[in-house]
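Sample entry (451 residues):
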Amino acid sequence: MTLEKMDDFILKHRDDYLNQLFNLLKIKSISTNEDEIRHCANVLKSEMETLGLDTQLIETGGNPVVYGELLNDKNRFTLLIYGHYDVQAVEPIELWDSNPFEPEIRDGRIYARGAGDNKGQLMAQLLGLKTYQALYGELPINVKFIFEGEEELGSVHLAEFVENHKELLEADLVYTSDGSSHNSGDPLILLGVRGVLTLEMTAKGADFDNHSGNTGNIVPNPAWKLMRLLNTMRDDDGNVLVDGFYDKIRKPSDKEMELLKRLPYDQQDIAEKIGYKNLDMDGASYYHKLTMEPTFNIAGIESGYTGKHAKTIIPSTATVNMDIRLVADQDPKDVFRKIEDHVKKVDPSVTVTYKGAMRPSRTPAELEIVQVVTDAIGHAYGKEPLVQPSMPGSLPDYVWTEILNTPSIIMPYANFDQHNHSPNENLKVENFLNGIKCTCNLVRELGERNV
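Predicted structure, serialized as tokens:
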């Protein structure tokens, strides 16, 4: 009866809950828009205060953190919920079918910037708490919320904030709703993230672009120099040739390998959803490469002229931008130093520039709390959730597992095809309402299990 009560209550308040979300989605809280960011933070603060949360805006070196807590001395367990209220820019605006900051529901989906990433999932957390209070009254656990405004910038001040507020943020578990659910539509639990290192390499030729006839064979072309360097860093099978690149990688446990084998795999469906019909890989390889292996990706190369008309030049510079996804126990700074050393050996004239990084993170699958959360989510959705040891992308999960030394679990509420960061970002209404129910039931079962 308890889950039926939740379903009935959420359905009864569906329109009110959607209106609360829409009010947040209308705010143009793009990470670099200081006025709108602060407006959004204040609106969020007011929403949290209506739930009885002791809420405050805490300044950082950039955008403010919205922090709220509801504590009771008799409760043994403390849950810390993380999310972010900043959103990506909307360009190219002409590819949107509706105004990205005027949310619309079409075919059962909410279309707006931030619908899935992360305002819809953030609001589902808050409304899950509201639903619990309406149905059952006093919370059986302590709850803390931390919502940052710089996730889309790489969470540049979050680690410092957590380091400076360890006592305030002390908890038994960190719970995040971000990212996309499994392509099968089944509920998905993620126990970690890959880290990321971004860097730039620039090769230089002459001081300025030259005529390719008048100076051909005389002035060196830096694009060729860059390609020669890149070919020494990765082989045709995708293996990274930088000395020490694979050092310190944490091997997956037997439990983690077992979890990977349980994940459903439909090659044709995935191929269609990612737009790559030549996908040719078995399920075990697919998930191992996505979660347990680092990447060495060229995100973009810039050199010379690429316009419609002929321009016969030898470019003066060539630049490659790279993002390298890292797995548990790899240190981004250590990997960057090894790449620097490799470049110095092969071609010291190439400049290597560190752009940014986020450390990887992984919570052990064997922990008891993982099973408790898995059971609670399974009951809410009426089906056993998939448990994946790591998500392919990157979130600042390490601030919880390494700085706070607290286990962290990620449960995406958004649909697989949410198109976050792209035009026509969307969140299925069903996913939003299920997220509210999931949060409500998680609070209930954490209290009942007396963990």
